[in-house]
Design goal:
By secondary structure, the protein is of the alpha+beta class. It is about 20% helix and about 45% strand. It binds calcium ion (4 copies).
């Protein structure tokens, strides 16, 4: 019985290893524009890059200068449609994005692993929540002359270790039952 409980505890510990870790990246450091910017937090690496031109960091968030004359430093649809992408060193669940420099006619197109999946998503005051999107790369695109915004924060969760296969749990259970059965037989023989 105690042995069975022990094996159940071991199986539970395996499941417990699957904890997800949350990472919040905040982009409020001013700096020079670069084709790519690199960030790291607790072993999770993040590369931010612009489809065209430079990523432009300032105290209000990350934007894009698409390298054409007259383009502003926001992610905007002016001259060229700017797309800013966030690539993580492992697959993560996107939790929320906080946009900044937003006015009431801004919306974004959402890209996942290089493909556009949502069009014209309105940007509210506050966070945009994405509870069930798992990928390594998330992109935010502006199009049309009205769209111009920056990205100030992004929160993601790592997925943790894979949950053990049901067969692995069944095997642990079987081992426990077998050992328990042997003990029971031994007890009977010793009577
Ligand atoms: Ca721009
Ligand atoms: Ca532009
Ligand atoms: Ca748009
Ligand atoms: Ca606007």
């Amino acid at each position: 019985m105690i042995r069975n409980m022990l094996y159940a505890a071991v199986a539970f510990m395996f499941m417990g290893a699957a904890t997800a870790e949350a990472y919040l990246f905040t982009f409020t450091t001013d700096g020079a524009g670069q084709p790519q910017l690199f960030f790291s937090q607790g072993g999770l690496d993040l590369t931010v890059d612009a489809r065209q031109g430079n990523v432009e960091p300032d105290s209000n968030g990350l934007g894009v200068d698409d390298s054409h004359n007259g383009d502003g430093n926001a992610i905007d649809g002016n001259i060229v449609d700017d797309l800013l992408s966030f690539t993580f060193s492992e697959a993560v669940r996107l939790v929320f994005v906080r946009f900044s420099s937003v006015d009431n006619n801004d919306d974004f197109d959402f890209w996942v692993n290089g493909s556009q999946v949502l069009n014209e998503v309105d940007i509210p005051n506050g966070n945009v929540w994405f509870n069930d999107t798992i990928a390594t790369t998330f992109g935010f695109e502006a199009d049309g002359n009205n769209d111009n915004f920056k990205i100030k924060k992004i929160k993601v969760e790592t997925l943790g270790s894979p949950v053990p296969e049901p067969t692995a749990i069944a095997t642990w259970g079987l081992i426990g039952l077998t050992l328990g059965g042997c003990a029971w037989l031994r007890r009977r023989r010793n009577k």
